[in-house]
Amino acid sequence: MGLRQKILDSRLYRDFIQRKATGPLRTYYDVPPADPERSVMETEFIALDLETTGLDPKKDEIVSLGWVIIRQLSVDFSSCEHILVRPTKELSESSVVVHRIFDSDVADAPSIEAALEHLLPQMAGRVLLSHHAPIELGFLGQACKQFFGAPLQIPTVDTLVLALRDIRRSGETMKSGALRLDTLRRNHNLPPFRAHNALSDAIAASGLFLAQIAKRDPKGELELDRILR
Amino acid sequence: MSIELEEIAEFLKQHHPFDLLPDEEINALPKRLSARYFRAGTKVLSPQEQCLHLYIIRTGGTETRDPNGQLLARLSEGECFGVRAMYQNGRAANNITTLEDSLCYLLPEKDFHALTGKYPQFSYFFAQMGGERLRSGMQLLESRDDDQLKLMSVKVSDLIARELVSIDKSASILEAGQLMSKERVSCLLITEGGDGVAGIMTDRDLRNRVIAKGRSYDEPVTAIMTEKPISIDPDQYAFDALLTMTRNNIRHLPVMKDGKAVGMITTNNLLARQSLSAVYMAGRIGKLTEPEEMAKVIAQVPELLSHLIEAGATSQNAGHIVTTLSDAATARLLQLAEEEFGPPPVPYVWMAGGSQGRQEQTALSDQDNCLIMDDAYNADQHGDYFKKLADFVCDGLNKVGYVYCPGEMMARTDEWRQPVRTWQHYFNKWIEQPEPKSLMLCSVWFDLRPVHGTKSLFEDLHRMIISKAKDNRIFQAYMVGNALSHHVPLGFFKNFVMIRGGEHDKTLDLKHNGVVPIVDVARIHALANGVEAVNTYERLNAVKAFPSISNQGASDLLDAFEFISITRLKHQVRQIRRGEKPDNFLQPESLSAFERSHLKDAFSVIKNLQGALEHAFGKSGT
Questions:
Q1: pLDDT by residue (tens digit) across B113-134?
Q2: A-contacting residues of B 431-490, CB under 8 Å?
Q3: Which Pfam families match (chain A) (predicted)?
Q4: Which range of residues forms the domain containing residue B173?
């Protein structure tokens, strides 16, 4: 972990941004963050996936969010949520092709601000779980700054990073596509999934995460700290 | 509902007993589930451990062992464990260990009980497994067990069909596999020190634990065998064996006497018992003298059919066995007629046509038959005798339960009680000068099989029919025209086209729109290629060798035939179990999504091969 990241993740910095935060982000910071010394079994995770119009949080927008909560290393399907977001600009053709979300689908959808008001309480006290987390962190962080006056700080586990560590530890050479969610799931004897909906991707990542933890420690007693990014 | 949750619902719909739940219930189910993942070799549950969920295996597999380490069951995708805990205050009864990396869906106890409370068929499935209501399950099984099917009176030792095939535990996987292949067995007993039992190995183990795992064939069999298999004593009853296998979800059961293996029984052995009971029924018919008495035996055919289907018989098995009983009743009535009217003045042969001829009868059958007399027949001298004989048998069959053929295609009709020369004339005319009316008769008279009497009378006639039909392209084209008049109930978008209105609103006629078209296609290929068989399976297998149909096409059609036939039989068995009169009208909603999609595939196979038929033979007449 770089020095800059250490500072950004520090308690001090958190206290600092908490004072600047407004609205639902303020409430989010009122809940203490997940304790990195607790076991994974005792930690709650929110597996989250975003679909966006592009890769640049400064230019591009979130079009949908999907999440599911993991408690006691069990994916709770009753907590599933899937929200379409009304973008401020017209959807580009390439984004429509990738996500199959059309302008007409999102005409009556909530704004990103409203969506975050719903999401942030779900994230409070939990660990963010995502496959390639920089996208989620980048877009949510940008939105938080824009609407609620402060960046987003959240302990995060990235299934892609865990997979990368597994491959490095095994000493095998990396094959192309080896870090793709569907490849990784297949390697852990998880069922195939149909991608391209934020929720289905979030659920797919949550299954992979359970498998990755089971491989490290079937009882889930390892400390959260050891798997944080 | 999101795509992912829809996938979970689809998964559940494909697995028993969840397929018994209505769609709205099953679609609401994923939201109540959670998912957990276990590495291979993880102990998921131990006896007395708290278990507040029913576990449904999504991927992977588990092993259930009782507290003494005795193997009880091996479960795989779509199967459930933790059932006993649902009925024992949330305490697990057995050890559950994963054999592979496994993802499980967990259904909370209260949701499980809400479902079992609401849906009796769902509840029945688990109650039996859970043992909570085993007693009532036993009673139910017993009440099904009529006088003919005395599983209770047959000893396990009587079920052992062949010498035990076993191998010493020092053998390699390769050697074990080779032995299984050579002996054509699906299961091998692994022994130690001569006849001590070390374990058991099945073809499923070869698939799941060797091939799928990329394991070396040089490893010892002990690496993949199941230790301490559950076994049964030779002095126990067949019923116990069936119960043991059903309860533990296993297909092979070693028979042990004083710690030594003496044999192996499989579900197939038990199936053979079911057909044996048919042999017993046929034997009984042969001793009776009154049609009313025979009717009582034949009245048990629906019950027999249900047993057969539930024991896993194919539709071909079932058709064959059920037809055996019609043949027995026919032959017995002919014997009685000869006793009453004296020996026949000239030789004759009684022929079965239609489904009895093809040996494809089901729970409901009317009679199709005819009589062929020797050419020495003289109507003035002998006509009266054969009329009395035919009336006696046809009336008798009607009383026994095989109702009169609505088309009067029976030996009691003068036209269908004729000497060989007249039959030759008939067939000549039908083949040489086909017309729509005569083609209607083909489906019955081109599927003839001798049942009783001088069978050689039919042989010459049969040869003539085969050789004439083989060479006549015009006749073939007419047959095709007739065959294509039976439409498959599939719309342009592969949706079911159902019957509308009337008594059978929103149903599919599995006989006329499923079975009959395949029978027709098989008949044409058989006749055009000089194949003598009349059974549809035999016909389709025989025509694979000829160019009029592709090997793949014939195989696909065989699969489609089996699937549609068994779906029809299961539908009839459900009706029988509900105390209804069996019919051919199926509501597609009563099937699981998986079965529905299979049925659509089967129908499209027929549609394709009907098209190919027209291409190969042309089409005329209709």
A1: 999 888 877 876 776 554 333 3
A2: none
A3: RNase_T (PF00929)
A4: 156-267
Alpha helices in B165-266 (DSSP H): 173-183, 203-205, 238-248
Spatial separation of the C-alpha atoms in residues A108 and A106, rounded to whole Å: 5
Interface test with A, best of B1, B4, B45 (most A CBs within 10 A): B4
Whether A206 and A200 have beta carbons less than 8 Å apart is answered as no
Residues B8 and B92 placed together within one structural domain of the fold: yes
Half-sphere exposure of B69 (CA within 13 A, CB side): 4
Q: Which of B5, B34, B44 to mutate to test the interface with A (most CBs of A within 10 A)?
A: B34
For residues B581 and B554, state if they share a domain: yes
Write the ipTM: 0.91
Provide the shortest C-alpha distance from residue B157 to chain A (in Å). Answer: 42
Handedness of CA A194, A199, A201, A206 (dihedral sign): negative
Cβ contact, residue pair B3, A78, below 8 Å: no
Residue B519 shares a structural domain with residue B556: yes
pTM to 2 decimal places:
0.49
The answer to whether residue B261 scores a pLDDT higher than 90 is: no
pLDDT digits (tens, 9 = 90+) for A101-134: 777 777 788 999 999 999 999 999 999 999 999 9
Contacts of B5 in chain A (CB under 8 A): 77, 80, 199
CB contact under 8 A, A77 and B106: no
Mean pLDDT of B178-189: 89
Together in a domain, B556 and B494: yes
Nearest CA in chain B to A79: B31
Same domain, B422 and B290: yes
Q: Is B43 on the interface with A (CB under 8 A)?
A: no
The number of CA neighbours under 13 Å toward the Cβ of B505 is 3
Nearest to A194 among B3, B36, B100 (CB): B3
Predicted confidence band of residue B622 (pLDDT cuts 50, 70, 90): very low
Residue B260 inside a domain? The answer is yes
Report d(CA B170, CA B191) in Å as an integer: 9
Q: Which domain holds residue A153?
A: 3-226
The residue type at B55: Y
Question: What is chain B's length?
Answer: 622
Q: Give the residue from chain A lying closest to B102, CA to CA.
A: A189
pLDDT value of residue B238? 72
User: Number of A:B CB contacts under 8 A?
Assistant: 82
Structure letter (DSSP) for residue B18: G
Nearby residues of B102 by Cβ (< 8 Å), 6 or more positions away: A189, B37, B38, B40, B57, B58, B59, B60, B61, B62
Q: Strands A62-71 and A45-52, how do they pair?
A: antiparallel
- Categorize the per-residue pLDDT at B274 as very low, low, confident or very high, splitting at 50, 70 and 90: low
CB–CB contact A210 B7 (8 Å): no
Buried b / exposed e over B477-488, threshold 16 CB at 10 Å, is: bbbbbbbbebeb
Residues sharing a CB contact under 8 Å with residue A12, sequence separation 6 or more, in sequence order:
none
User: In the predicted model, is pLDDT for residue B312 greater than 80?
Assistant: no
Contact B7 A193 (CB under 8 A): yes
pLDDT of residue A216: 94
Nearest chain B CA: its distance from A98 CA (Å): 16
Query: Which residues of B fall within a CB distance of 8 Å from A199?
Result: 2-5
Domain with residue A171: its CATH number is: 3.30.420.10
- State the pLDDT at residue B604: 86
Contacts with A, B 74-113, CB within 8 Å: 100-103, 106
Q: Report chain A residues whose CB lies below 8 A from the CB of B59.
A: 189-191
Give the separation between CA A135 and CA A141, rounded to whole angstroms: 10
